[in-house]
Amino acid sequence: MIRNTEIAVVLSFIYAVHVSFHEFGHIFFLEKYHIPYQCQSTRWSVEITYCPSTFGQLEKRQKLFIILGGSLFSILLDVILILLPDRDVIATFAVLLIIVETLNLIFGKDARVLEQTLKEKSQ
Length: 123
Prior knowledge:
Layout: H1 2-32, E1 37-41, E2 46-50, H2 52-56, H3 60-83, H4 88-107, H5 109-122
Antiparallel strand pairs: 1-2
């Protein structure tokens, strides 16, 4: 029972760090391209909002870095966790987090902004 509790605490901590890396990835590129933004936290999540008019003036490549930055940073963390030796539970959890990030890029909030940005090319 104690072993399961320890694993649950470690996985919860990893998830919190994973989410932090995701948001940091967005912030990193927002700062790099000098886009004003705000961080809003609720009880269960953190939201990054930015100035749409300034974002719209960026090159497509810069927009993609901002949109994909969160997933890139968090997946980097997950890959590092997978590479840890003798940590099967953590590696399995990291794989699940990578799947969640992929689903976020397909169905989540990042997906909507990504879709709009990709459609701009065809217009």
